[in-house]
Hints:
The structure is a single chain. By secondary structure, the chain is mostly beta strands. 0% of the residues lie in helices and 50% in strands. The chain has no helices and 15 strands. It has strands at 18-23, 29-36, 42-51, 53-58, 65-71, 74-80, 87-92, 96-101, 107-111, 119-122, 129-133, 142-145, 151-155, 158-162, 169-171. It has a four-stranded antiparallel sheet, with no helix packed on it. The radius of gyration is 16 Å and the shape is globular. The model is unreliable at 1-8 (pLDDT under 50).
Amino acid sequence: SAGEDCTIDACPPMAAVYLYGITGRSSNQVFLYLIDTRTSQLTPIGDTGVRGAAALARHPLTGVLYMANYFNNVATLYTVDARTAVATPIGPTLSYTDMTFDNTGVLYAHTRGAHGRDLYTVDIATGTATLVGDPGNYNSVGLAFTDTNELIFKSYGSFYTMNPMSAELAYLRY
C-alpha cells in the first residue's frame, strides 16, 4: 500500500501509514513525533522551539504540517518541517482546541476560551480565522475529516457530524 517504504526523510504527502503528533501543551516545549500506524512505533523528530501548542494538521495535498499554539496570551499559526521539527511562524491566529484539513486543503479549527467555542476556517498563508458558526456550548477534544470529506467532531465521550458550512451538529449513534 502507499507509504510502505516511507521513511522519516522521504515520506510522500499521502502516505496513510504514518501520522504526526505533538506533545507539550500549556507552557511546555512542543516535540514532534512520527507514528507508524502499522507497528505503533513512535519516532521522535525533535523540539519545535514552540511552547503551548494545542493543534497539528497535515495538508492533504502538499503534506506540509501546520501547528497552532497559545502561549503568554498570544496565538500563532506555524508551519513545521516534518524532518527537523523546526517551526516557522506564519502569523497571529486564535486559540484552537484542534484543527484539521478537508480533502481540498481548507483548514478548519475549533476555538476555546476567550474566542468562544466556534468553528473557523483558517487562511494558511496568514493565520487569519473566519467564523463558520457556533456549534453550541461543546468543548472540542477532536476534529477530523473522513475520507469522504465528512467532518467529525468529538466532545468528551460523544461523537457528532458537523456541517462545515454552518457548524451545525448531528449526534452519531452507535
